[in-house]
Automatic annotation (TrEMBL):
<comment type="pathway">
    <text>Purine metabolism; GMP biosynthesis via salvage pathway; GMP from guanine: step 1/1.</text>
</comment>
<dbReference type="InterPro" id="IPR029057">
    <property type="entry name" value="PRTase-like"/>
</dbReference>
<keyword id="KW-0660">Purine salvage</keyword>
<keyword id="KW-0328">Glycosyltransferase</keyword>
<keyword id="KW-0460">Magnesium</keyword>
<keyword id="KW-0963">Cytoplasm</keyword>
<keyword id="KW-0479">Metal-binding</keyword>
<dbReference type="Pfam" id="PF00156">
    <property type="entry name" value="Pribosyltran"/>
</dbReference>
<protein>
    <recommendedName>
        <fullName>Hypoxanthine phosphoribosyltransferase</fullName>
        <ecNumber>2.4.2.8</ecNumber>
    </recommendedName>
</protein>
<keyword id="KW-0808">Transferase</keyword>
<comment type="similarity">
    <text>Belongs to the purine/pyrimidine phosphoribosyltransferase family.</text>
</comment>
<keyword id="KW-0547">Nucleotide-binding</keyword>
<dbReference type="GO" id="GO:0016757">
    <property type="term" value="F:glycosyltransferase activity"/>
</dbReference>
<feature type="domain" description="Phosphoribosyltransferase">
    <location>
        <begin position="16"/>
        <end position="162"/>
    </location>
</feature>
<dbReference type="InterPro" id="IPR050408">
    <property type="entry name" value="HGPRT"/>
</dbReference>
<dbReference type="InterPro" id="IPR005904">
    <property type="entry name" value="Hxn_phspho_trans"/>
</dbReference>
<dbReference type="InterPro" id="IPR000836">
    <property type="entry name" value="PRTase_dom"/>
</dbReference>
Length: 181
């Protein structure tokens, strides 16, 4: 466990690539909202790392709130079941909301969260995700800010876990087969 790097089969995105892209996204976001206050809504737990870095890459300050839903459990495949575990602390009526996610895989989690938030009469709801996988075309949710489109492989690191492990890795990578054995 001391050498988690040994558990990676390959690195898809380095720390530097991620930080560079987040700075670009932060600049785009700040320009698009130009002076309008927007609320960052992170989706626990995977989004904690991207939230921490994205909010600090913004040229100014933005409030944040969190939701917790569960769709995966501890495995690598989506169960298709979305449960709300923790709701927002904030009333978002009339406010601009920017959902922050680490990854969109099937899109089930975000399409559910987006329509749930839209039912609360916000001024707008947009999505920012670090990673997006190809299967999301099946649910067709418009994602305004995408860090990277990645292949359909199970990835960990930078907030993404396998059985709650590897969230602390600074890169994004795939796991070696021995990890699953
Ligand atoms: C992962 C990931 C996204 C979601 C994407 O979360 O962080 O939130 O799955 O999958 P989908 O597009 O197929 O719905 P997970 O449910 O593993 O919880 P976690 O963030 O606590 O790891
Ligand atoms: Mn998640
Ligand atoms: Mg997970």
């Amino acid at each position: 466990h001391e050498h988690m790097g040994d558990d990676l089969a390959k690195v898809l995105l380095t720390e530097e690539q991620i930080q560079t892209r987040l700075s670009e996204l932060a600049g785009d976001i700040w320009k698009d909202y130009e002076g309008k206050e927007f609320l960052l809504v992170g989706v626990l737990k995977g989004a904690v790392v991207v939230m921490a870095d994205l909010m600090r890459a913004l040229p100014g300050t933005a409030p944040m709130d969190w939701m917790a839903v569960s769709s995966y459990g501890s495995g690598t495949k989506s169960s298709g079941v979305v449960r709300i575990l923790k709701d927002l602390d904030t009333d978002i009526s009339g406010r601009h909301v920017l959902i922050v996610e680490d990854i969109i895989d099937s899109g089930l989690t975000l399409s559910w969260i987006k329509s749930n938030l839209e039912s609360r009469s916000p001024a707008s709801v947009e999505i920012c995700t670090l990673l997006r996988k190809p299967d999301v075309v099946k649910v067709d949710i418009p994602v305004r800010y995408v860090g990277f489109d990645i292949p359909n492989e199970f990835v960990v690191g930078y907030g993404l876990d396998y059985a709650e492990k590897y969230r602390n890795l600074r890169c994004v990578g795939t796991l070696a087969p021995h990890v699953y054995a």
